[in-house]
Structure formats: structure tokens, C-alpha cells
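ZP: hey, is the tetrahydrodeoxyuridine complex queued? I don't see it on the tracker
AM: it wasn't, my bad. submitting now with these inputs:
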Amino acid sequence: MKYDHSFSYEFLANWKELPVADQILVDRAYEAMESAYAPYSNFRVGTAVRLDNDAIITGSNQENSAYPSGLCAERVALFHVGANYPKQTVQTMCIVAKGDLIPVKKMLSPCGACRQVMLETENRQNNKIRIIIVNQDSRTLIINSVIDLLPFGFSAGE
Ligand code: THU
């Protein structure tokens, strides 16, 4: 079996270069970041997703003193969509974060568990999810599909 996976991404110096609709999503992700409960890592993450009915759903990381019980912002947002908007499609997902855990200039990227959940969301809805990652120094990465973040990912079925 041959598996060809090449992909392209866009890189902007600042998220203010994004189209207005995306800038609104970034704003909402920063707003969501304020509700992060992150007393253990002090790393605050915010996510905003735009659905195909144009609703914006947000999430933030929620930690717990029993560390593994906490959940990342991306999964908080996507599971909220699954539970409350099961018929909607996720068009675009924006991720922002702030904290010393990651140096300001280092690019942010979703963790493996979140990529797994993002991939299943994309597969379930049979529509690509655009991902906008805003770094702490405002540099912005735009990825066209979750498959680009998780090639050879595990998934059930054919
Ligand atoms: N975190 C996220 O919310 N998203 C990620 O993709 C990576 C990490 C959270 C989990 C934890 O609350 C904190 O950031 C530090 O790992």
C-alpha cells in the first residue's frame, strides 16, 4: 500500500492579517482562554470553533488536582459541539494559548489526544476542519485539515 500525504499550510506574521470572520474567531478564543481553569500548569488555552450555521462554540482547558482528570480546551469545545450540536459541521477551529510552559517564540500545537478527537470529528462529519493556531507572539499557522496534523492516525471502520 502506498500512502501519499503531502500538504500545504499558510503562515502569517500576525493573526490580524486573517480575514475578518477568522479574526472574530480568534477574539472569541482569547475570550474563552479567560475561563481556563489552570492552577497547576498556569498554561491557559482557549478554543473557538465555527459551525456551518455560523454559531461559534468555545472551550478552555479545565484542570483538576487529580491531573489526568482535566481536559484540554480543544476537547472541551469539540465534545460540547458533539453533545449540543450533533447535526452541525465544524468549519474552522481556532486555538490560542498563554503561559510559560511553552516559550513565547515556540509554535503551539494541539496535543496528540486532541488531534485524535479532532480527527474523529472531521471523519464523522465528512468535511475538513480548517485549523488556525495563534502563537503567543501572534504568528499564525493555518492548516487545511486535521489529517495534516495526524497522518496515519488511528480510526475505526474502513
Ligand atoms: N492543553 C490544552 O488545553 N490543549 C493542548 O493541546 C495542549 C495542552 C492544556 C492541558 C493542561 O491544562 C495545560 O494545557 C498544560 O498542559
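AM: back. Residues 89 and 126 are 9 Å apart (CA to CA).
ZP: great, adding it to the tracker
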